[in-house]
Design a protein that fits this description.
With 529 residues, the chain is an alpha/beta fold. 43% of the residues lie in helices and 11% in strands. It has a domain of 147 residues. It binds iron/sulfur cluster.
Length: 529
Amino acid sequence: MISGKVDPWQKPTLRQILQRGEKFAVAVELVTSRGVIAERSGQRVLDLARSLSSHPEIDAMSITDNPGGNAMLGADVLGTDLISRGQEVIIHLACKDWNRNAIQSRGWELASAGFHNVLALSGDCPVSGFEGQASGVFDIDSVGLLKMFDDMNKGLKYPSRISDKMLTMKRTNFFLGTVVNNYKRYEREVMPQYFKLAKKLESGAGFVINQLGYDSRKLDELQRYMALKEMDVPVLANVYILSGRAAQFFHDGGFPGCFVNDTLFDLSQKHARSPDKGKSFFFEFAAKQVAIAKGLGFAGVYLGGHLNADEFARVLEIEKQFSADDWKTFARQIQYGHTDEFHYFEQDRKTSLTSNQVNRYYLASKTADGQKQARQQISLDYKLNRLVHNQVFKKGTKGFNAGRRISLKILDSSVGMQKIAHRMEHALKILSFDCRDCGDCSLPDIAYLCPESQCAKNQRNGPCGGTRKGKCEVGEKDCIWARAYDRLKAYGEEEQMLDRPVVYKNGALQGTSAWTNTFLERDHHSKNS
Ligand code: SF4
């Protein structure tokens, strides 16, 4: 049984723990059940949550939002029970099932109910639903969600009904978290993940949880990269406690963005065949990961897995039995990455972790020679689109001014003429980009790749974490952000790929001329300086 119970009312908030840095934080992920809380599975999760909340070392319960794209009981049901007991709760909020209005409304509801910690996610594509698969919403993404809630924290402005003054709403007090997937395989996946992390922090994220993974070198790399780029935000290292089944699931790509390599898979299956189903191995393995996270200087850990409360406690107990420097040996052992994996830093031969030397091949690829070579691989249509964009769609150019004049003339013409012009534009863009006529075009933001037709989650502010070997988590297409990275890198522009105000697609522009909207500055590009 869990021993050393404390009165949960004495617990400091997650924000206090992470910002003061006095304690190594421990959060545990709770996956809600299907059906009402009175179901046996619901009661099991509730009992688990209550038991964990009385553990003196566990600082927060993190409650998922329809994980894996399935309908589950809403996080608030469990969360309300926990906060009424003084427990810190992180509510996951994903964009897959809600549009921006519903998310904002959820935000006010959560703030009013006393929830402060929100983990902003784009979410997994729905995979099931009542009478057929649900459609993903993805009206905004995790970056858009962070910025919206950050603005709510600052006090949203709204016009007065009786004067021309702007009024300010009461501020919310969200402590916003975000996720980064640092266990990607290729440079074209890893680097956009890092760029998006920077964008998320700029948009209001106050803490970070990384994706689950089993590679200490990559964990170290995340920490060092963030230090190098002065991303001074606490990070919780994800420690998902494996079982034979979980290892199989991740190994087979069952959960987008989660990865177990062949070696770890074989090891897991071997131990899963033992009389205790490998529990002693898996718990010690997880305890070693906790020790590594501590040793590397992470702010805390984020524990997950299908365990009961005593088993979570057991992992923490095992970790305490290690000596201060044991983590260095564990870090050498737990390096289950991809064989041909990209690393931003060179390896430190002494520690087997990360040195401060940036990857020499990566640096060479960024020189003028490297870019010249890369440009030879770039398709002609991209080069042509760049040319047209720079001559015509860039504000201040002669082409842009002409486009503006033509757009005004079209607007002055008959409805029939406007329709013909729009249809011609759309036909051309269908042929070139598989355009879906959203009217608020992000082609220039994503190296002329359309997020509406080629991204399952319509990600307009960087890639989601679900790619596998550079492919989209849905189907077999290359991720548009990985492709955009390749294209931009050939011109030395990849590091600026997200340097613009957060993109929110304007739904009011659907089915209207994107060209006219750009020339008349009605779309999101008008916010670019
Ligand atoms: S207008 Fe919208 S749908 Fe069409 S290419 Fe641009 S982003 Fe895609």
